[in-house]
Amino acid sequence: MALFPMFVDLKDQNIVVIGAGEVALRKIEQLIKFSPKLTVIAPAIHEEIRILSQTHAITLVQREYVIEDCENRFLVIGALDDLSEQEKIYKTCMSAKTPVNCVDSPLLCSFIFPALIVEGDLCVGINTSGKAPAVSSALRQFLSKHIPHGIHDLIERVHIIRQNEKVGIERQEKIIGICRDFFKL
Questions:
Q1: What is the pTM of this model?
Q2: What superfamily in CATH does domain 1-113 come from?
Protein backbone atom coordinates (compact mmCIF):
# COMPACT_ATOMS: atom_id res chain seq x y z
CA MET A 1 0.00 0.00 0.00
CA ALA A 2 1.28 3.47 -0.85
CA LEU A 3 2.34 5.75 2.00
CA PHE A 4 0.87 9.20 2.57
CA PRO A 5 3.43 11.91 1.70
CA MET A 6 3.64 14.44 4.52
CA PHE A 7 5.92 17.45 4.36
CA VAL A 8 7.07 18.78 7.73
CA ASP A 9 9.18 21.74 8.80
CA LEU A 10 12.52 20.46 10.11
CA LYS A 11 14.06 23.88 10.73
CA ASP A 12 15.70 23.86 14.16
CA GLN A 13 14.13 20.50 15.04
CA ASN A 14 16.15 18.14 17.24
CA ILE A 15 17.09 15.11 15.11
CA VAL A 16 19.52 12.32 15.92
CA VAL A 17 21.33 10.10 13.43
CA ILE A 18 22.73 6.99 15.07
CA GLY A 19 25.60 5.78 12.92
CA ALA A 20 28.08 7.81 10.91
CA GLY A 21 29.09 5.77 7.90
CA GLU A 22 28.34 6.07 4.21
CA VAL A 23 24.58 5.46 4.57
CA ALA A 24 24.31 7.99 7.40
CA LEU A 25 26.20 10.49 5.25
CA ARG A 26 23.59 10.21 2.47
CA LYS A 27 20.76 10.84 4.95
CA ILE A 28 22.60 13.76 6.55
CA GLU A 29 23.27 15.35 3.14
CA GLN A 30 19.50 15.40 2.54
CA LEU A 31 18.53 16.49 6.04
CA ILE A 32 20.84 19.53 6.17
CA LYS A 33 18.90 21.08 3.27
CA PHE A 34 16.08 21.63 5.79
CA SER A 35 18.18 23.23 8.60
CA PRO A 36 17.51 20.91 11.53
CA LYS A 37 19.68 20.67 14.64
CA LEU A 38 21.39 17.35 13.99
CA THR A 39 23.23 15.16 16.45
CA VAL A 40 25.29 12.32 14.98
CA ILE A 41 26.36 9.56 17.34
CA ALA A 42 28.84 6.82 16.40
CA PRO A 43 32.18 5.41 17.56
CA ALA A 44 33.74 6.33 14.18
CA ILE A 45 32.59 9.32 12.12
CA HIS A 46 32.91 9.52 8.33
CA GLU A 47 35.28 12.32 7.29
CA GLU A 48 32.68 13.95 5.02
CA ILE A 49 30.26 14.16 7.97
CA ARG A 50 33.02 15.94 9.93
CA ILE A 51 33.40 18.41 7.06
CA LEU A 52 29.63 19.03 6.92
CA SER A 53 29.60 19.70 10.68
CA GLN A 54 31.88 22.71 10.11
CA THR A 55 29.22 24.56 8.10
CA HIS A 56 25.92 23.11 9.39
CA ALA A 57 24.22 22.67 12.76
CA ILE A 58 25.62 19.19 13.36
CA THR A 59 26.87 18.04 16.76
CA LEU A 60 29.21 15.07 16.55
CA VAL A 61 29.30 12.63 19.46
CA GLN A 62 32.01 10.05 18.97
CA ARG A 63 30.97 7.09 21.12
CA GLU A 64 28.62 4.12 21.11
CA TYR A 65 25.01 5.25 21.29
CA VAL A 66 22.83 4.52 24.29
CA ILE A 67 19.09 4.06 23.92
CA GLU A 68 18.48 7.29 25.87
CA ASP A 69 19.97 9.15 22.87
CA CYS A 70 16.59 8.60 21.18
CA GLU A 71 14.68 10.52 23.86
CA ASN A 72 13.14 13.95 23.22
CA ARG A 73 13.87 13.93 19.50
CA PHE A 74 11.69 15.15 16.65
CA LEU A 75 13.03 12.33 14.41
CA VAL A 76 15.42 9.45 14.84
CA ILE A 77 17.46 7.92 12.02
CA GLY A 78 19.06 4.56 12.77
CA ALA A 79 21.89 4.05 10.29
CA LEU A 80 23.41 0.95 11.83
CA ASP A 81 24.29 -2.39 10.26
CA ASP A 82 23.21 -4.29 13.39
CA LEU A 83 19.57 -5.38 13.00
CA SER A 84 19.11 -6.08 16.73
CA GLU A 85 20.23 -2.53 17.55
CA GLN A 86 17.85 -1.17 14.89
CA GLU A 87 15.03 -3.13 16.55
CA LYS A 88 15.87 -1.56 19.94
CA ILE A 89 15.85 1.91 18.40
CA TYR A 90 12.56 1.23 16.62
CA LYS A 91 10.79 -0.13 19.72
CA THR A 92 12.02 2.76 21.87
CA CYS A 93 10.87 5.35 19.36
CA MET A 94 7.51 3.69 18.77
CA SER A 95 6.75 3.58 22.50
CA ALA A 96 7.60 7.31 22.72
CA LYS A 97 5.65 8.06 19.50
CA THR A 98 8.83 9.47 17.90
CA PRO A 99 9.08 9.08 14.12
CA VAL A 100 11.91 6.67 13.31
CA ASN A 101 13.62 5.41 10.18
CA CYS A 102 16.03 2.49 10.43
CA VAL A 103 17.71 2.54 7.05
CA ASP A 104 17.32 -0.47 4.78
CA SER A 105 14.79 -2.01 7.20
CA PRO A 106 11.29 -0.96 6.06
CA LEU A 107 9.63 -2.96 8.83
CA LEU A 108 11.56 -0.90 11.38
CA CYS A 109 10.39 2.46 10.08
CA SER A 110 7.45 4.63 11.02
CA PHE A 111 8.28 6.79 8.00
CA ILE A 112 10.15 6.27 4.76
CA PHE A 113 12.99 8.61 3.86
CA PRO A 114 12.09 9.60 0.29
CA ALA A 115 14.31 10.21 -2.67
CA LEU A 116 14.32 14.02 -2.76
CA ILE A 117 14.52 16.73 -5.35
CA VAL A 118 15.16 20.04 -3.59
CA GLU A 119 15.58 23.23 -5.57
CA GLY A 120 14.93 26.34 -3.52
CA ASP A 121 11.33 26.20 -2.32
CA LEU A 122 10.49 23.28 -4.60
CA CYS A 123 10.67 19.91 -2.88
CA VAL A 124 9.56 16.65 -4.50
CA GLY A 125 9.63 13.44 -2.48
CA ILE A 126 9.47 10.02 -4.13
CA ASN A 127 9.04 6.66 -2.45
CA THR A 128 7.98 3.13 -3.29
CA SER A 129 6.72 2.31 0.22
CA GLY A 130 10.14 0.86 0.98
CA LYS A 131 9.81 -1.83 -1.69
CA ALA A 132 12.30 -0.54 -4.27
CA PRO A 133 14.46 2.42 -3.18
CA ALA A 134 16.54 2.09 -6.35
CA VAL A 135 13.40 2.85 -8.40
CA SER A 136 12.80 6.00 -6.32
CA SER A 137 16.39 7.08 -6.83
CA ALA A 138 16.30 6.48 -10.59
CA LEU A 139 13.01 8.37 -10.91
CA ARG A 140 14.49 11.25 -8.90
CA GLN A 141 17.38 11.46 -11.37
CA PHE A 142 14.97 11.35 -14.31
CA LEU A 143 12.60 13.99 -12.94
CA SER A 144 15.46 16.29 -11.89
CA LYS A 145 16.46 16.58 -15.54
CA HIS A 146 12.91 17.58 -16.51
CA ILE A 147 12.19 20.36 -14.04
CA PRO A 148 11.65 23.42 -16.22
CA HIS A 149 14.08 26.31 -16.13
CA GLY A 150 12.45 29.23 -14.35
CA ILE A 151 10.44 27.19 -11.84
CA HIS A 152 11.81 29.40 -9.05
CA ASP A 153 10.46 32.51 -10.78
CA LEU A 154 7.05 30.88 -11.16
CA ILE A 155 6.97 30.00 -7.46
CA GLU A 156 7.85 33.59 -6.53
CA ARG A 157 5.26 35.09 -8.92
CA VAL A 158 2.50 32.94 -7.48
CA HIS A 159 3.67 33.66 -3.94
CA ILE A 160 3.50 37.42 -4.52
CA ILE A 161 -0.01 37.14 -5.94
CA ARG A 162 -1.12 35.07 -2.95
CA GLN A 163 0.34 37.64 -0.55
CA ASN A 164 -1.00 40.75 -2.25
CA GLU A 165 -4.36 39.90 -3.78
CA LYS A 166 -7.64 39.20 -2.06
CA VAL A 167 -8.60 35.54 -1.68
CA GLY A 168 -11.22 34.53 -4.20
CA ILE A 169 -12.05 33.19 -7.64
CA GLU A 170 -10.26 35.98 -9.53
CA ARG A 171 -7.00 35.40 -7.68
CA GLN A 172 -7.25 31.64 -8.19
CA GLU A 173 -8.00 31.98 -11.91
CA LYS A 174 -5.03 34.32 -12.31
CA ILE A 175 -2.72 31.83 -10.59
CA ILE A 176 -4.06 28.91 -12.63
CA GLY A 177 -3.56 30.93 -15.84
CA ILE A 178 0.05 31.76 -14.97
CA CYS A 179 0.76 28.10 -14.19
CA ARG A 180 -0.91 26.87 -17.39
CA ASP A 181 1.08 29.37 -19.45
CA PHE A 182 4.33 28.37 -17.76
CA PHE A 183 3.79 24.65 -18.27
CA LYS A 184 2.08 25.13 -21.65
CA LEU A 185 -0.98 23.17 -20.54
A1: 0.89
A2: NAD(P)-binding Rossmann-like Domain (3.40.50.720)
